[in-house]
Amino acid sequence: NDISVSLPTIQSKISKFNTKNYKTDSLQINSLLLNKQTQIISVGTFTNKTKALAYYELIILEKMIQDTLPKSTHSLFAISQDNYAILLKEKNINEYLQYFNEIYLLN
Fold first, then answer.
1. CA distances for 18 relative to 3, 5, 22, 40, 102, angstroms
2. Least CB-packed of 39, 48, 60, 65 within 10 Å?
């Protein structure tokens, strides 16, 4: 989410990752500026939570992508369409990350 990260570079690497691992899923990559300090790159849409979490688990291990992102300035997570709408409205990414870690990663 650091605005110093090159969007075209990371989007290209995500696209390559998707082509390699999810060729038949027609995933879309979108980006937007959440606030002055935070960019969001979203990938979707997934048909269910299980597929979204499987994608999350695979992409966090992808060295090509992780090496592009500064270690302390990015967060990866899965989010439902309803929660994404709330995130965009409230613009509190840390609150959602806490929720994601408690609900999805600790269970």
1. 23, 20, 5, 17, 27
2. 48
Going by C-beta distance under 8 Å and a sequence separation of 6 or more, which residues neighbour residue 22?
A: 55
Reduced to 3 states, what is the DSSP secondary structure of residue 75? coil
- Determine contact, residues 82/99, Cβ cutoff 8 Å: no
Cα–Cα distance measured from residue 99 to residue 27, given in angstroms and rounded to the nearest whole number: 25
Q: What is the phi-psi region of residue 35: left when phi exceeds 0, alpha when psi lies from -120 to 50, beta otherwise? A: beta
pLDDT tens for residues 70-100?
Answer: 766 788 899 999 999 999 999 999 999 999 9
Contact 78, 60 (CB under 8 A): no
Q: How many Cα atoms within 13 Å fall on the side-chain side of residue 82?
A: 2
Residue that is written with structure tokens 């929720």 in the block: 99
| Residue of 98, 95, 83 whose CA lies nearest to 42 | 83
Query: What's the pTM value of the predicted model, to 2 decimals?
Result: 0.84
